[in-house]
Amino acid sequence: FQAERIMSYIKANYKEDINLSHASGALFISGRQINRIMEKRFGQSFHSCLMNHRIMVAKALLATTTLPIEQVAAEAGFSSHFYMYQVFKRQGLPTPAFIRSCSHVD
């Protein structure tokens, strides 16, 4: 139940500049407990779950819209498109521009 509450918080707030302490305050659960719950349920930390959700949103926007990449980054909750590129690279993903070119958005 708590894992779903935490994921709901991520899904509702991923566009904002949130972190573990924000989630802790909003959900009234310690940061350590949040990470324990997320590791147990999803095998990932709060931060990893947040980044994965942002990546999923960005990939969907790249594939289904013609928004500029800078705007996609902002809509997905990344602080800049440069940071989004870094996260994609760190995760071993193709660049956002490549993802967009492969999706044939008109």
Explain the overall architecture:
The structure is a single chain. The chain is mainly alpha-helical and 106 residues long. It has 7 helices and no strands. The protein has helices spanning 2-13, 20-27, 31-42, 46-64, 69-75, 81-90, 96-103.
The protein's oligomeric status is single chain
Give helix % range: over 70%
Q: Using DSSP, what is the number of strands?
A: 0
Overall mean pLDDT stands at 95
Helices, by number, come to 7
- Compute the separation of the termini in Å: 41 Å
The profile of the biggest β sheet is:
none
Tell me, briefly, the overall form: elongated
Rg estimate, integer Å: 15 Å
Q: Which sequence of SSEs, written as H and E, runs from N to C?
A: HHHHHHH
Low-confidence stretches: none
Structural class by secondary-structure content: mainly alpha
Query: How much strand?
Result: under 5%
Jot down its keywords:
mainly alpha, 0% strand, elongated
Brief write-up:
This protein is mostly helical.
List the helices and strands and how they pair.
Blueprint: H1 2-13, H2 20-27, H3 31-42, H4 46-64, H5 69-75, H6 81-90, H7 96-103
